[in-house]
């Protein structure tokens, strides 16, 4: 099954919703609707410039939908998943790169905790 233009528009809309909800509006995100790379959706990011590319595959196998999950909900779930990667991007980059210190990790953790305090009610 191919994802449609409507699927892609829903995906972008849902990503934007989660970017706002997670207080990530300072990120400059570009969206791509492209041939699959083994993932249904993916993120490329640069934490120093707060830029990213979130892609939705054009090829989506209907058999991979969870039983009882609609196509719309599946697309929305993919968008939410990729934006959570944006939320965690700095913490992951600091934790896996030799360029950053443990102090950087703690600052990224504190930033995430502060955001979650506002989000989680």
What features would you describe in this structure?
With 121 residues, this protein is an alpha+beta fold. The chain has a domain at 5-87: 2-Layer Sandwich (Zincin-like), CATH 3.30.2010. 50% of the residues lie in helices and 17% in strands. It is built from 3 helices and 3 strands, in the order αβββαα. It has helices spanning 5-21, 71-96, 102-119, and strands at 28-34, 41-46, 51-57. A 3-stranded mixed sheet has the order 1-3-2. A hairpin with a 4-residue loop joins strand 2 (41-46) and strand 3. It is globular and about 45 Å long. The termini are far apart. The mean pLDDT is 89.
Total of helices: 3
- CATH arch. level architecture of one domain: 2-Layer Sandwich
CATH topology of one domain: Zincin-like
**Helix/strand order:** HEEEHH
Overall radius of gyration: 16 Å
Q: Runs with pLDDT <50, length 5+?
A: none
The CATH C-level class name of one domain: Alpha Beta
- The percentage of residues in β strands lies in 15-25%
Strand order of the largest sheet: 1-3-2
Q: How would you classify the helix and strand content by structural class?
A: alpha+beta
Q: Globular, elongated, flat, extended or rod-shaped: what is the shape?
A: globular
Determine the fraction of residues in helical runs and give it as a percent range: 40-55%
User: In whole angstroms, how far apart are the ends?
Assistant: 38 Å
Mean pLDDT: 89
Largest sheet: 3 strands, mixed
Say how many strands there are: 3
């Amino acid at each position: 099954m191919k994802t449609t233009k409507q699927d892609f528009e829903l995906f972008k809309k849902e990503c934007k919703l989660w970017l706002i909800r997670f207080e990530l509006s300072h990120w400059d995100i570009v969206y791509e609707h492209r041939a699959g790379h083994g993932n249904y959706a993916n993120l490329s990011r640069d934490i120093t410039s707060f830029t990213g590319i979130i892609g939705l595959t054009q090829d989506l196998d209907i058999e991979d939908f969870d039983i009882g999950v609609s196509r719309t909900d599946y697309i929305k779930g993919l968008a939410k998943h990729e934006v959570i990667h944006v939320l965690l991007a700095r913490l992951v980059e600091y934790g896996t790169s030799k360029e950053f210190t443990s102090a950087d990790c703690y600052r990224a953790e504190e930033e995430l905790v502060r955001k979650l305090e506002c989000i989680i009610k």
